[in-house]
Design a protein that fits this description.
45% helix, alpha/beta, 7-stranded mixed sheet
Length: 477
């Protein structure tokens, strides 16, 4: 029988906070009849967001084409959905049960190229687009390709999405943390980037790439164009590839904010020496089709022989799942204006994005009204990274702690806080230590995906809990 000590040590070192012990406890409580408000993960349809009608109607016909030959089928589905399903069936050459090309179906890759062109107004090569099982598999493919030795390192934002730290641990590479500037809307700071990479070089780490999440997870921040230009110049000067995680590009709510893709900014800068991996997904935005695991990776500034190795890597897994590829296609190629499905599609899309904007404001204003809590009202994505303050218990001699001991102490504090929050209120959030945070600070990440009434209830419950929790700590100190 395999014992724990026989398991790959790199797997044992990997951690994924958004589905850790607190979430497991939430499942236990839910099984016992407790109502749980799950704010731990960006899983929209699990939190009552309805799927888009156009997407599900088209998938239904593509997955079960026998419906098309049934009497009255033309009346059950809009004409443009029927046309789209027939085109999909012609393009798949055997339906959704057959393997596709390693990089994905050609007509879908062309549709993605057109999508990027409409978004950015720049040339796009469909032969530099690979369809993936969600953005995560694209990110992992880039890591597989770029990691050549154990001293290779990746610059990762702190706070970060744990996919990055977990993948780095699994692949035996090095993590180079750079702190986002919380006082400046979680933008990147060039001096911080330079300091972090210099510290890594002194330790013998070989930096190969910088990961950037825009809009941010867990921060909800939207990067300015000026900030993106700085990152591109920094990457060029340091010989780094850029991993641009842009899965929340449709989720921009803040007044005056705009999503700028790395591809567009890089093209307009005339930069051709920096390799860029851009990732997008059907799981976020307004689709929320997490379970279909669809996404794509676009690559720029990579020689043909190198890109061939990336496609070879894709071929080892044969291809991404076909229904996920189809949802990616429907994201990239929505109903045309004036078509039978357009009005309902626009109404559903607009309603989801409007609701997310309103819930971000309800959450942000509510939490900022709690003494000892502060958060930037999310300008994008689906999350808020909430800063909170706690009194230190008697005997906590912080000044004498090593940095490592201080980190463990703070991780234990925010984990205990989030666990007690779950136990007493049914609210499931993720400790900030699971994403990384500046030493001496405490945070938690919450989504604002639940229905509005649940968000309002969350704010009220959190206020009562926080006041009570702080009072107890003060009494003990």
């Amino acid at each position: 029988m395999i014992k724990l000590h026989n398991v790959n040590s790199k797997l044992l070192e990997a951690h994924y906070a958004v589905r850790g012990k607190i979430v497991n406890r939430a499942h236990d409580l839910e099984a016992k009849g407790r109502k749980i408000i799950y704010c731990n993960i960006g899983n929209p349809q699990a939190l009552k967001q309805k799927p888009l009608t156009f997407v599900r109607q088209t998938l239904s016909l593509a997955e079960y084409p026998g419906l098309l030959s049934r009497p009255g089928a033309e009346k059950l589905f809009p004409a443009d959905v029927v046309r789209r399903a027939k085109m999909i069936l012609e393009g798949t050459h055997g339906g959704t049960g057959a393997y596709t090309q390693s990089a994905g179906l050609p007509f879908i890759r062309r549709a993605v190229a057109d999508f990027i062109n409409r978004r950015d107004g720049i040339p796009v090569d469909a032969d530099r687009i690979a369809l993936t099982d969600g953005a995560s598999k694209g990110v992992q493919a880039a890591f597989t390709m770029l990691t050549n030795k154990e001293t290779d390192g990746y610059m990762v934002p702190i706070p970060q999405y744990p996919l990055y730290s977990a993948t780095i641990a699994l692949y035996g590479a090095k993590q180079i943390n750079y702190f986002l500037d919380e006082k400046n809307g979680w933008q990147l700071d060039e001096r911080e980037l330079a300091a972090s990479i210099e510290a890594a070089l002194k330790k013998g780490v070989n930096p190969v790439a910088i990961a950037v999440i825009n809009p941010g997870n867990p921060t909800g921040a939207v990067l300015s164009r000026k900030n993106i230009e700085m990152v591109i110049r920094f990457a060029k000067a340091r010989g780094l590839a850029i991993l641009a995680d842009e899965v929340y590009q449709e989720n921009v709510y803040g007044k005056g904010l705009k999503f700028h893709s790395f591809a567009k900014v890089m093209y307009e800068m005339g930069e051709e020496d920096v390799t860029l991996f851009s990732f997008h997904s059907v799981s976020k935005g307004f689709l929320g089709e997490c379970g279909h695991r669809g996404g794509y990776m676009e690559v720029r500034n990579m020689p043909d022989d190198v890109y061939a190795e990336l496609i070879k890597l894709q071929s080892i897994g044969l291809c991404s799942n076909v229904p996920g590829q189809l949802v990616t296609y429907l994201m990239a190629s929505p109903p045309e204006k004036g078509s039978e499905s357009y009005a309902l599609y626009a109404e559903e899309r607009g309603g989801i994005l409007k609701g997310l904007k309103e819930k971000a404001e309800i959450l942000g204003r509510g939490l900022n009204g709690i003494e000892g809590m502060s958060v930037d009202i999310p300008g994008g994505a689906m999350y808020a990274f909430v800063k909170f303050e706690l009194p230190h218990p008697k005997g906590a001699e912080l000044a004498k702690m090593t940095p490592e001991a201080r980190m463990k102490y703070e991780a234990a504090r925010d984990s205990e806080y989030c666990l007690r929050l779950l136990e007493e209120t049914g609210i499931c959030v993720v400790p900030g230590s699971g994403f990384g945070q500046q030493p001496g600070t405490l945070h938690f990440r919450t989504t604002f995906l639940p229905p509005k009434d649940d968000i309002r209830a969350l704010v009220e419950k959190m206020k009562k809990f926080h006041v009570s929790y702080v009072k107890k700590l003060r009494e003990e100190s």
